[in-house]
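User: quick one, fold this
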Amino acid sequence: MFIKIKKNCGIFMEHNGMEQNHIIPVTSNFLINLNHAAEISFYTIKETKTRFDLEGHEINVPPHTRVIHMQMTYRHSSIKERIGDTKSSVVERNYYKFYFMPEEMGQYEQLRGHIENHVLNL
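Assistant:
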């Protein structure tokens, strides 16, 4: 099953291909295959967080912002070699975080509801 993230609808995104603490607005439509998601979590930001856009400008993420965090499967990962003094490697799974500002709850509820429809609660 795919989910479509629509451009210019007030959603911000973060992924591990970006510098830490950076978010960007979604400016292109794109699809994510939920069959490749290993873990999905939903949470709400409790206090104001400061993030940055790609040009280094501050973006304040207000309280009550909802986040959908998708951790992808190991198939969709990268390997970093030579961590520290050892010759070991670390497998880093790709992830996506979608930030839904408090005024964008309709989009959040629609996406979460669609994901929840495919979950068996025990």
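User: anything notable?
Assistant: The longest helix spans residues 105-116.
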